[in-house]
Amino acid sequence: MTQFSIVTINWNNLAGLKQTYESVAAQTYRNFRWIVVDGASTDGGAEWLATIDEPYAEITSERDKGLYDAMNKGLIKGSATEGYTLFLNSGDFFYDENVLQKVADAIERAPAKPRYVYGDYHLQDATGRLTPAKAKKIEHLVLGMPSSHQAMYFENERLRHVRFRDDFKLSADYCMIVEFLQGQDHKRDVLKIDSPLCIFDTTGVSTSRRFDALKEDMRIRREVMKLSPLHSISLYVLHYVHTHSKLLKAALGK
């Protein structure tokens, strides 16, 4: 029976943390650990977490050095057991109560034990409107994240050998996925589920940080994926134009 480690990073986001907890608690599939890494929240989150009395909850609240330091703490704890780790941070939530069951069934039906499992997702804007988004083929990893990170499941034995790198402030998750999949057989080790697995809240995503992240993505392609400078720069330009076009259309209400 497949076991899941659900890692939730939180800092001063009590409302989002409660939403994530409700989503986790509602799952029909029950073979999971909920690993909460709270950065010593001062908004009541640490106190609220202290009231959680669930056998599946493993909660710590202490200062950290930032998001990816906290995620590495969660990664280490999550990957210490067998199974798969999912990063579902405060404010993130499952698409519905049957997601873990769906993922477990897909893993158990696979001809070989997959290392990396991912699927589709929905985007949620400030009004609550949902927009479906399809996961990309893993062969297109060079273009960017194959899906929302809340829809990705990492096999723990392999996960123990990677970390979120602190020299990438915005794209450490992309870098981790690239390094996780290096040397893996995409046909045997990757399982894509054609079904929505999470809802990603896009509110609060900074425009300036989007463009800064594109620069980090270019570094990852050059330094980690070993693409040529010309190839890396070309992809950066394409992503820059695409992102600028999307923002312009949004501003014009199209």
Topology:
Elements: E1 4-10, H1 14-25, E2 32-38, H2 45-49, E3 57-61, H3 67-78, E4 84-87, E5 93-94, H4 99-109, E6 116-124, E7 130-133, E8 152-155, H5 156-159, H6 172-181, H7 186-189, E9 190-201, H8 207-223, H9 229-251
Parallel strand pairs: 1-2, 1-4, 2-3, 6-9
Antiparallel strand pairs: 4-8, 5-9, 6-7, 6-8
Helix pairs in contact: 8-9
Give an overview of the whole structure.
It is built from nine helices and nine strands. It has helices spanning 14-25, 45-49, 67-78, 99-109, 156-159, 172-181, 186-189, 207-223, 229-251; strands at residues 4-10, 32-38, 57-61, 84-87, 93-94, 116-124, 130-133, 152-155, 190-201. The protein is globular. The mean pLDDT is 93. Helix 8 (207-223) runs antiparallel to helix 9 (229-251). A hairpin with a 5-residue loop joins strand 6 (116-124) and strand 7 (130-133). Strands 1, 2, 3, 4, 5, 6, 7, 8 and 9 form a nine-stranded mixed beta sheet that branches. By secondary structure, it is α/β, with parallel strands linked by helices. The longest helix is centred in the last third of the chain and has 23 residues, at 229-251. The chain folds into two domains: 4-203, Alpha-Beta Complex (Spore Coat Polysaccharide Biosynthesis Protein SpsA, Chain A), CATH 3.90.550; 205-253.
